[in-house]
């Protein structure tokens, strides 16, 4: 697997077979995501079969392009490295029965939040960058002010909300 997916519209059905049973999950737009391990591991292989039960649209994030863009933003890269390490530690410590290509937002929100390093959640600094990650508001502040580039400074004055897959941005320039 080389891509992560978000369901933008429609509905999908996921089935994973293991030695004990079949695992079946519904994938709903705006709350679930598909194949996140593909972003953090070049060795991830899909564990089940995903089928559209009605016309659907997916947003795909290619792991190689994602990493190329992330490397250009040191403060973000620091967060992503810590998150990816925690995510993969969880993957590697989980039984095969627990693993899935699907992360269910309504069930896995706290799990995913636990992968975000505590020292950057809700940190209060003079400059903070508000990001929305899977509906979680996270205050990110770099260790040193030099870690901020021009794009980060502009985003400091912007707030981005993600609601049911629709993004809207408020800025001082409107």
Task: Explain what the structure shows.
The structure is a single chain. The chain is of the alpha+beta class and 174 residues long. It contains five helices and eleven strands. The strands form four sheets. Strands 6-1-4-7 form a four-stranded antiparallel β-sheet. Strands 3-2-5 form a three-stranded antiparallel β-sheet, with no helix packed on it. It has a two-stranded antiparallel ribbon with strand order 8-9. A hairpin with a 2-residue loop joins strand 10 and strand 11 (166-170). The protein starts with a strand and ends with a strand. Mean pLDDT is 75; it is low at 121-174.
Offer a concise description of the structure:
Helix content is 29%, strand content 33%.
Entry keywords:
174 residues; alpha+beta; four-stranded antiparallel β-sheet; 33% strand; globular; disordered C terminus
What topology does this entry show?
Layout: E1 3-9, E2 11-17, E3 22-28, E4 32-34, H1 37-40, E5 49-52, E6 57-62, H2 63-71, H3 74-93, E7 102-104, H4 105-114, E8 129-133, E9 136-140, H5 150-156, E10 159-163, E11 166-170
Antiparallel strand pairs: 1-4, 1-6, 2-3, 2-5, 4-7, 8-9, 10-11
Q: How many beta-strand segments?
A: 11
Query: Count of DSSP helices?
Result: 5
Overall 3D geometry?
Answer: globular
Poorly predicted segments: 121-174
Radius of gyration, Cα only, in angstroms? 17 Å
The largest sheet, given as strand count, sense and whether it forms a barrel, is: 4 strands, antiparallel
SSE string: EEEEHEEHHEHEEHEE
Report the β-strand fraction as a percent range. 25-35%
Estimate percent helicity: 25-40%
Structural class from helices and strands? alpha+beta
Strand order of the largest sheet: 6-1-4-7
**Average of per-residue pLDDT values:** 75
Distance between the termini: 40 Å
